[in-house]
Automatic annotation (TrEMBL):
Family: Belongs to the complex I 24 kDa subunit family.
Cofactor field: [2Fe-2S] cluster
Annotated protein name in UniProt: NADH-quinone oxidoreductase subunit E
Gene3D superfamilies listed in its UniProt record: Glutaredoxin (3.40.30.10), NADH-quinone oxidoreductase subunit E (1.10.10.1590)
NCBIfam families to which the protein is assigned, alphabetical: PRK07539.1-2
UniProt keyword annotations, A-Z: 2Fe-2S, Iron, Iron-sulfur, Metal-binding
UniProt organism field: Gluconobacter thailandicus NBRC 3257
Entry-linked InterPro entries: NuoE-like, NuoE_dom, NuoE_N, Thioredoxin-like_sf
Amino acid sequence: MSTADLPLPDDLRQEILTLAGSEHRPRAASVSALRLVQARFRWISDRHLAEVAQLLNMSTADLDGVATYFNLLFRKPVGQHVFMICDSVCCWIMGCKDLSDHLCKKLNIRPGETTPDGAITLLPIVCLGHCDRAPVMLFDETVHEDVDTAALDRLIAEAQETPR
């Protein structure tokens, strides 16, 4: 049985209830609650989404709308590490396509896919807000600016050496 099939642990449920209690309306804690779930499981399964919705007194559909709106919340399993290449206009002009192609070739995957060993997921992302330092990417939760293929190779090596 995978962790996605298990109920939310009691400590996580309590943390979500505490968040909800600190808001005028419990649903105001939805993004923070989903981030807690993702921090624990790396993604938000349907079961966990439904449990959080119940804790926040929301419909599952409403909470799924929140989860799918924010591109840093993952509704599908991702690898141990996530590479997110910015594909905004500035990054595109500065070579993000070449960087994405480099990652695809090195990892033998396409954008949106995870390596067979589950180590790395490659995702495009719209604007990370560092346009003056393009091309930019997010590696797990760290922004990297002025990225080139040598930097990508170092990050790939780091990801393959370091489980999260």
